Fold:
Amino acid sequence: MFGHKRRKSPPQVDWPRLKALLEDDDRRAAVERLYPDPGNESFLSALRRIEPNLAGDVVSLGRQVFHGARLAEYPTLAVAGMLNSGKTSLVAALLSRHGRRRTLRGVANRQGTHRFVLWLPQKWRDEPDLWQLLLDDFGDAVGHPPELLAEMPEEAHEQYNNRSGGVDALGVPLVATDPALDDLGIGLLDCPDIVSDEVFGVGSPERRRELLGKASTFCSAFLVVSTPSMARDRSLGDILQTISDLMPGIPRLLAVNKIRPGQSPEDVLESFEPQASKYGVERVYGAYDFELPKSEPFIPKSAKDGDQEFVIENSDEDPLPIFFSLSPQADENPPAEINCDRLLTHLTRELDRPESSDRFLLGRHAALRRAVWNRGLSAVEEDAEKSLRLTLRARQTLLDTTINLFTKQTTGGAITEVRMHQSERIVRQLADAFCDAAPWYARWGVRINTFIQGRTKAATDLFKQYVPTAMAERYAESIKEKFKAKKVGQLVSPEELEISLRRFGAALTLPHWFDGQNDPVDGAAWNQAMHDVLRSFEENDRVVFDSEQLRNVAEEMWRQIPRHKKLAFGLTPLAAMLAAFGSVLMLPVDFGATVLVANASIVELLAAAGLTAFSAYWAGGKTAQTLSTQAAVEQMSMFYVLLCHQIGIDPGTPLPSIRIKQSNVLFPTPNVKVASDGRARATLAVYRMNSTFRQELNGILPRESKHA
Structure:
């Protein structure tokens, strides 16, 4: 303005655009939710989940930046002068009717301004957080938190005049807002009377000048109000010198109030020229004394803006001075018509924003940048990384549990043999295959076992054409007891499943169930989950052997048995074999309503039946081993996935692999169905950062500020 280059605005943050990115839960979402419900999660949604208060801070700071960017562009005009020079009347001329009543105007010290009063556009109050920050910023600048100017005129007048505050109250600034300043787009700093003597008890001139210097960063320009008689007054020179010393580089203006009709505008301008030139005053405004009737021709009633003419309103009940810039050319001053840009009310279009605005905006930008990048994004990224770390730990616990229940291992953890769930499908396949492949002499004496038939229909249906005599019943009972004594296979009950999970650190690796405690937070839900795992596994396990390969293995095994060979118990090999199979199906009957999964390797079952030749063949035969390993791994994969589902853990993609002897075997993806009400009662969510989010964010809110 006034021949000075306008200060370059700091880079602005486009808050609506940034907010759209932070709320995007589609293509530009910050987070990808992998489990339990795959989808995208916006930055703010993730932050509300992790740190709700911080999410609120980000939104609040964004609003401050958005509204602050517009409000901070409003310049602030500091108005100062000597005692009763009419400066507050000038301020009042720019305010609404209610605002005028709150100002203190008069001709005695009792009507003088003895406090700093910052008048701001009413819009500042629309954002409470922004308003409070501005108050804090202003208080920091002058060294004391501000006090709000009372709404009631009488109380406001007492504050203005510092009637009860004394010397100390001088340093406590007053702040007020007015809607008329919204339209003008300007703030006003009504300064104390700089030259008031200390004898008034409201602060020395030195103290006032000190405070004026502190408030200077809030000023875009300084307007000194004078009267025609002060053209050569030393006090005016002192004020201008003080302003020049305290605010170098800030435009200085002069407003001459109460000009009498006998003085022409150009004469007044000429009389103030020496002081204006000496102290760098860039423009002189004037206002004629409205109390004198002869001033009427020199008080503008209208002004032109291009082809349009605007009426200048001035209340007859409470008239105020109308200031216009003085021209050295008589025909450019009233009573001649003037343009709108000559009016003091149009000064806002030429003023730059104050230094404090840049500082305020840069501070809000920095705070938003820290909240989004340093705190918010770091929290979201750490949460995603943590979710993956916790999930990997939890998966390992569930995988170790699955391996423990479905394999035999060395003390070092190496898998020596895989165990199968001896489901009805598997047992039926084995029984059918060995019976169909058995020579005629091996089937002698095989008939229905009425003992088993009476105890379980499932066993009866399966073995009504195979199960041996009462001698085999005792044989089957002995094998069954070996299962119970853990000498053969593995009986997996809900209790055994929990023991295995705890053995592999469930209390530490399943925080969504244990929450740092030794026992589950919801014991009933945890116990139900153990039952649901086994129940869903029983319902889903449809794994069977490859029929052709199983038939070939069965035929080859029979060829290994000498003709008419009997066992010590007096049973044929087939009878002993079927007794072993029957013992497995009889196990759930002994445990009543308890869900039970019986796991055993074929080698274990054949050995328990005393069929050492069969057992040795199965253990050493490549085809037999491949057959059982393939089926067992399918079952293990299914159990692992269902265990993950019921415990609320993402099983992962791809599924894990296990090492069997010298080979790594990858779990195949099982085909499982879970009841509609089978969702886990507690889940450990998994999140992953969107790789493009950082780039998108940096394009809108650069991590490093050029003004840092």
About this structure: The mean pLDDT is 84. The chain has three domains: 10-73+362-387+691-708, 74-352, 414-689.
